[in-house]
Amino acid sequence: MEKKRLFSGLTSTGRLTLGNYIGSLSKLLKLQEDKNNEVIIFIANLHALTIPITKAELLRNVKENLKLYIAIGIDPKKTKIYLQSQIEKVNELFYILSTMTTIGQLERMTQYKDKATKQANSTFKIPTGILFYPILMAADIILFNPDYVIVGNDQKQHLEFTRDLILKLNNNYDTDIKLVEAKIADLKEGAKIMALKNPKQKMSKSDQNKDNTIYLLDDLLEVKRKILGALTDSENKIYYDLEKKAGVSNLLVIYSTIKNISLKKAEQEFKNLTDYRKFKEIVADQVCNLLAKIQKNYHNLNDDKLIEILNYNLKYLKKEANKNLDKIKDKIGLIL
Ligand code: TYM
C-alpha cells in the first residue's frame, strides 16, 4: 500500500505554546507511529520574516523550535524535518502561485484583516509579506504534494485557499496535484486552545498579555500561577459549554487532551467538584507534569545535534521538491 504523506509546520516567530502542542504537535506524535504514514514537518523561518525580527532572535527561535520538536517526542528517524529556507524551490513556486492569486483574495484573509484593521494607513505600514503569507504557505504544501496537512483550527482558511490553488493548477494546466485535506481536530480535541484571561480569543505566541499564554518552556511555578488566574465564571459547576462557560471549557479541553481521555470522561471526573480553585490546581498539575517532561528532554539536548537532524533527510526532500516543481513548470510551459 502506498504511504499517505502528512505535512505540517510552524512559524519560528516566537516561543511555542501549549496551543501549538495540543492543536498540532501532539497529533503528529501519534501519526508518526503509523507505518502507513510518511510525515514531513518543517519550521517556517521565511514566514517568520513577516514581522520585524533580529538575526539573533530568528536563529534562537529556530533552534528552540527544533529542540522542542525533539523534546516532545518527534523522532527524526520517523518524521522528516527541514527548515523552510533549506528548500529554495519554494520561492519559485511561491512566485508562480502569486500570478494565480488576486489581491482581493488575499485581502479577505482573516489573518491579514486582523493586522490591517489594527492601524491607520495600514497599507503603507504592513509589509507585503503579510499579504502574501498564504501564498507562501500554499507553496510549502504544494511543493510536497501531501495527502493531509495537520494543523489547528486557525489555519483552516489558509488550507481552503491552498485547495483553491490546487484546483486552479489542475484545471488550467492539467497538473495532477492531490487535493490536500486539512486534518483539523475537533474543538473538543484541542483544535483551538483559548487565551487564559480571554477565552473567546485563541491562545497565541504573540499575545501582549503573557498571562494569556502558556509557553512550553515557561517556569512551572509561572504555569501554575497563570492557570490559577484563568478567567472562569461564577456558576461553580464544571462542564463543557463553549458559549456560556468558555474558560471552564478551555481548561477541560486542556486537561482531557493532555491526559488523553475523552471530554466526557473529564466531565465525569469533575462532576461533584464545585471548587474552581481545586479544579484549576488539578489542571495545572496535569500541565506541569507534561511540561516537566518536555523541559527535561529539552535541556538534555545538545545544539550540535540540530544540524545533523536538519541534514538527515535533506537530500530526499530536495529531490521530492524538485520533482514536483519540475512537473508543474513543465505543464505551465516553463521548461523547453
Ligand atoms: P503557527 O506557528 O502559528 O502554529 C503552529 C501550529 O499550531 C496550531 N495552533 C493552535 N492550535 C490550537 N490552539 C491554538 N491556540 C493554536 N495556536 C496555534 C496552528 O494551527 C498550527 O497548526 N502558518 C503556519 C505555519 C505554516 C504551515 C505551512 C503549516 C507555514 N506553512 C504549511 C502547515 C503547512 C503557522 O503560522 O503556524
From TrEMBL:
Q: Which Pfam families match?
A: tRNA-synt_1b
GO molecular-function terms, A-Z: ATP binding; tryptophan-tRNA ligase activity
- CDD domains tied to this protein: TrpRS_core
Under SUPFAM superfamilies, the record lists: Nucleotidylyl transferase
> InterPro entries, per this entry?
aa-tRNA-synth_Ic, Rossmann-like_a/b/a_fold, Trp-tRNA-ligase, Trp-tRNA_synthetase
Q: Please indicate if the UniProt record lists Cell inner membrane as a keyword.
A: no
Gene Ontology cellular component annotations, sorted alphabetically = cytosol
Q: What are the entry keywords?
A: Aminoacyl-tRNA synthetase, ATP-binding, Ligase, Nucleotide-binding, Protein biosynthesis
The EC number(s) this enzyme carries:
6.1.1.2
What's one GO BP annotation on this UniProt entry?
A: tryptophanyl-tRNA aminoacylation
What top-level class of enzyme does the UniProt entry assign? ligase
Q: What family does the Swiss-Prot or TrEMBL record give for this protein?
A: Belongs to the class-I aminoacyl-tRNA synthetase family.
**Descriptive protein name:** Tryptophan--tRNA ligase
Which organism encodes this protein? Candidatus Hepatoplasma crinochetorum
What lineage does the source organism belong to?
Answer: Bacteria, Bacillati, Mycoplasmatota, Mollicutes, Candidatus Hepatoplasmataceae
